[in-house]
């Protein structure tokens, strides 16, 4: 892009938008910088299904940085919605029209609009006791439903559904998880780890039902979830945790290329040279032009925000990193790096419980993925092994006596 833009506007205050702002200032950018989000100060989302939902973390503790940080770093935070994006198309800079009617022009715009909860195509989604979880406000509404004597039915047993199940059980609510898959999250964590995680639900009193919801109907003070096989589940509340969909309305209306996300290159640039995108709303376009997969996790959103900051400044983005995410439920901490669905074989270290580690070893003998329970050291070593592409002996991976840190350094 040449010289750094005189002004940048960031639409969205999640981790990707915040990371872009922080990286811009870290790189020495001195231009005008605006961040627009309806919630005001950017806040972190992972605690929404855990400590914040449980009531042990308050709203100020969610903030990614205090108000003083934005003042000290010359960043204007505007608590408003973004209604439209006029791209300019060579006739002028892009312009954001806010819900208040204010027009905000900037030399470059970053779309960090995130994702919305996926709605299921079934009757009853708009009933007052049916919830989704994407914001702090959503979590506060759901928290009101969780107490001893309550029965929460969760539609979707992925990461968010499983985490909320753990929190709801800790608050004394009965929980039923409904998912069509025999082993939910197997694609994300591998079948062996998914089997272990499924056992945690049973061990903590969560009922798991394999099935699909067909309708949600009012039932006195609660609701009934009607399943496709004819089963019925009475509940005081329902959480729909069926994944997310990228927020691409602004990009589509502005004529940007969109295909399951706003299409971007490695620097976050969209099909318009003055508009960038990052986080859950974006989707990387491969060098051959085909869209890549969206990786909807906190670390990916952070990294794409930082890459977009570099792109907006016309400098090389940070080096790519191995995909990584974490999840907490029932007092158990899970970390996963790489791909547990890659071709190859599973190699297990330890038994179910703390330290249990599953490796995904590719057909060529290199590591494709690693998942561990309360095993951050194993995952950090695994990430290094994935990055270096070392040929590995399955017996060494499986042997608890082999120090994975030394193995990652090539000394084992």
UniProtKB/TrEMBL annotation:
Cofactor(s) required, per the database record: FAD
GO (cellular component) term, any one: cytoplasm
Pfam families: Pyr_redox_2, Reductase_C
Domain FAD/NAD(P)-binding: 7-305
Record's compositionally biased regions (Basic and acidic residues): 281-293
Region Disordered: start-end pairs: 274-293
Keyword field contains Oxidoreductase: yes
Keyword hit for Nucleotide-binding: no
A Gene Ontology molecular function term of the record: oxidoreductase activity, acting on NAD(P)H
SUPFAM superfamilies: FAD/NAD(P)-binding domain, FAD/NAD-linked reductases, dimerisation (C-terminal) domain
Signal peptide: none
Residues of the Reductase C-terminal domain: 324-408
Keywords, in A-Z order: FAD, Flavoprotein, Oxidoreductase
Entry-linked PANTHER family: APOPTOSIS-INDUCING FACTOR 1, RIESKE DOMAIN-CONTAINING PROTEIN-RELATED
Protein's name in the database: Ferredoxin reductase
């Amino acid at each position: 892009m040449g010289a750094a833009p005189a002004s940048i506007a960031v639409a969205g205050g999640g981790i990707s938008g915040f990371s872009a702002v922080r990286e811009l200032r870290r790189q020495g950018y001195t231009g005008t910088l605006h961040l627009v989000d309806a919630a005001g100060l950017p806040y972190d989302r992972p605690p929404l299904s855990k400590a914040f939902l449980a009531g042990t973390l308050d709203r100020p503790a969610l903030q990614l940085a205090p108000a003083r940080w934005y003042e000290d770093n010359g960043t204007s935070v505007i608590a408003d919605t973004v209604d439209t994006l006029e791209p300019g198309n060579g006739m002028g800079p892009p312009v954001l029209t806010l819900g208040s009617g204010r027009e905000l022009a900037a030399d470059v715009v970053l779309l960090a609009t995130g994702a919305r909860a996926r709605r299921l195509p079934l009757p009853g989604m708009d009933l007052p006791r049916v919830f989704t979880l994407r914001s702090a406000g959503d979590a506060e509404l759901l928290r009101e439903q969780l107490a001893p004597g309550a029965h929460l039915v969760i539609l979707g047993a992925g990461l968010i559904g499983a985490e909320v199940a753990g929190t709801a059980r800790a608050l004394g609510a009965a929980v039923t998880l409904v998912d069509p898959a025999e082993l939910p999250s197997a694609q994300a964590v591998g079948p062996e780890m998914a089997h272990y995680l499924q056992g945690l639900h049973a061990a903590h009193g969560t009922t798991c039902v394999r099935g699909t919801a067909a309708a949600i109907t009012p039932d006195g003070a609660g609701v009934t979830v009607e399943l496709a096989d004819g089963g019925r589940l009475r509940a005081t509340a329902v959480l729909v945790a069926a994944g997310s969909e990228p927020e691409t309305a602004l990009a589509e209306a502005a004529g940007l290329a969109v295909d399951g996300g706003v299409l971007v290159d490695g620097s976050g640039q969209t099909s318009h040279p003055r508009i960038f995108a990052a986080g859950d709303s974006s989707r990387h376009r491969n060098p051959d032009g085909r869209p890549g997969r969206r990786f909807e996790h906190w670390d990916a959103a952070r990294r794409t925000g930082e890459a977009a900051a570099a792109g907006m400044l016309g400098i090389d983005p940070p080096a790519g990193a191995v995909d990584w995410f974490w999840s907490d439920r029932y007092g158990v901490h899970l970390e996963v790096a790489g791909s547990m669905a890659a071709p190859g074989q599973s190699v297990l270290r330890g038994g179910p419980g703390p330290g249990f580690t599953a490796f995904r070893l590719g057909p060529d003998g290199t590591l494709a993925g690693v998942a561990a329970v309360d095993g951050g050291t194993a995952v950090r070593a695994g990430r290094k092994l994935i990055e270096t592409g070392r040929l590995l002996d399955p017996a060494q991976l499986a042997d608890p006596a082999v120090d994975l840190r030394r193995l990652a350094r090539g000394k084992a």
